[in-house]
User: Fold these one by one.
Assistant:
Number 1:
Amino acid sequence: MACGAAFGPTADKALLAAVMPALARFEQEPDQLDRPSTRIQQLLRQLTQSVLDAGWQPADLVHVVKRESTLRASRLIAAFVADHSRQFQAPERAPQAWLGQLVDLGIVSGDRSSIIGGRGDLLAAWARAERLHPDDALLGAVQMLAQVRQLPRMPIVVTPPSKWGATNKGTEPAPRATDHIDAKALKLIRALLAKAEATTFEAEADAFTAKAQEMMTRHSIDAAVLASANAGTRHAAGVESRRVHIDNPYAEEKAGFLAAIADVNGVRSIWVPYAGLCTALGFPVDLQLTDLLFTSLLVQATRASAAATAADRRLSTPSFRRAFLVAFADRIAERLEAARSHTQAEAAQEYGESLLPVLASREAAVEAAYTEAFPNATTMRRRSFNAAGWHAGRAAADAADIGASGAIAAG
């Protein structure tokens, strides 16, 4: 798995030491414009605008503040994102992908027509909502300022606010039929994954997951053939990117898990440690399927890890859990690859010799997009792992033969 350069946005202690005495003096001034809370809010507004123009998206910014600080702090930065959205008229001007994040964050209404919050004295409103003393609220804002000011630039994958036009109406192409999973297929895949998450029997979970992978592979192949027929060799332009936020603990191992699942499904994923996220590149259907499978398998891996340590609490250590997750991902990827190969072989019999060039073209398109977006990516070095955790993880993923597609009826 490739990864970006290690860089962590941490609180700038030097800034805190320099700023806090000055803020204490300014707080006594009668002029409201000289109050430290006013000045801090001005700086946070400027920084929010700056980072959102430097490749960070709304969900990325809220995620990294929560990850490196607290959930409480993430609610404050969300207020500044709302303020920014109001300033830049996001409902009328932002790209739909950007608006979708604002809806998920509760900043824009579900119909994407109006902005919620982001008015008035943001710091005072946050302090009241969090029941914080003004001094504590001010300190929290300065700490967040120190964190946000250290954020580096990110690759721009969605048009930033400074480049938005006067309106977002009609600015994006209509989605193609091959960009989305068929509703019936999506329902079946989700049902299989839900069953895999719900069962306590590893054999059943593996069988459900394998069947879901087979359905995902077949749907991806059908979409690729249809796109090729409709667009000839131009279908390579359909490669897109999606950011997947990774939570602690064991974020690096989870990122490796995502990369393994992505590879099976024709997607490339790169770990960006300073942002706590992965950028996945691939065709829309494959990106959506990878996201679905990763979310489900993380649930299954967490449950399997808990079961492995339940009998012996001495195994419940970070080193064991880290090794367990890596080994579980490694073995699951092997089994998913077996399920994918089985389905590809069946599809090749139906489509004939025309299938291989189509799949090769898509693979080349994804690889080219990845290389262009991340020319300096490096490969993560393998670390030594807790032996017990490694063997337990392999055993949990290897408990059943998931290659038999007939285990679960398609309906």
Number 2:
Amino acid sequence: MRRSALLSGLRFEMRMMRRDRAVVVSLFALIGVILFSLWAGAQRVEAQRANVAAARADETQRVDGLKKSLALLQNGGAHGDVPPFRDPRNAAFMGSGPAARVAALEPAPLALIATGQSDLFPSVVRVTTGPKDGLLFNDEIDNPANLMSGATDLAFVVVFVYPLVILAMCFNLLAGEREQGALAMTLASAREPGAALLGKFVARSLAPIAAACATIALGVGVFADWSLLASPAFAALLMVVLLYGLFWAALAAAVDGLGRSSAFNALALIGAWAFITMIAPAAINSLAAFMHPAPSRIDMVLAARAATTDADRERDAVLARYAEEHGEGGVKRGSAQERTLRRLATQEAAFVRVERVIAEHDAQLARQRELSERLGFLSPALLAYRAVVDVAGSGERRYQDFLARIHGFHLDWRAFFLSRAKAGAEMTAADYDALPRFDATPAAPTPSLAALIAGITLPALLLAALAKKGFAHAKT
């Protein structure tokens, strides 16, 4: 009997929703925004892949050109003196630019769903023997105006637009009929009033959730690959959308269960939406920045480059310390080897200073992230966003792994070239064939679903209990 009443209430509410133009327009608007965001994400991913491919092609062309020049020099085909910075036998100059390897981070399979930090961190880095500031901060990733306005991706739609559609459909489930005088008649005519109300709630809440999930599946299949629909990452994405949607539906039902007017429900839910999606995340990030202050990225870049300039100014003192620690082995003053050692000494001092600046900055950012993650449960929107960008492979975890692998490769690259430069050994064809290679295998995206479940499901269950109490009171 109860099941029959539930289905009757569900079918009746679905017929009412089909006749309501506002409901139909809201659902089609949600579908259109989701498809547009996935199309825009696919265009962005295609541009990133083209950038990676172009960088790798440039690397191959440069290294092949150096090998050909080396062969000409060894066979006597080149005439005249070759400048050191163009001499493929000069390890000091080749490692600092012409022979640079590309460290690239390929977009993850579901990268189209979220921009994340891909507009702030480079996906392609040319690794040289120079300090790290020359690797990471040489290029402008995107136009600052674009960074300020943000990207329209699926993560934005899910976190901000998707809840508004759910709230618009569920905010006056009881209040509207109460104000029209139809609620008492509906409850009196139903054999199971509670089941009928539950059917109305299920129809109103699951319509936008089902539309969002189906549209996401369609968009991912069309703009990416249909095989991704069977991946664990896509299942995690649907879980995020489902849990996040149920949270907002439970919130709307809890406010509606208070027995107030439709206007009160609308204002209260809009206020809750603004607090959860904008105020709480901003407050969490501001608190983390206050507790663990770190210089801005611009300040860090300026500090790193100032360290390089200071090392260059102190070149003579640096060279003296370098000679004392490493020994010059009877190198004549003014010779090419002496100039090379002088240059390497300056680079080494700059490298140490820049590493210190970047390490201090990264340590503060790590403390900020740790505190922000601990406080993330205060904002379900923040948890949902983090989960989506982790699924997309554009979150902090994947980029931290990428930067850590660049750091290890940078050390290997420096050791390969600087050991030859310090010994005065010339680069050979075998050396070019043995150049260190970057491990391009990225860490798999790891969505933080545990925090999502704890931070969204538990509040949703509490709100559902409050809604049940309010609905029970309405039946009486």
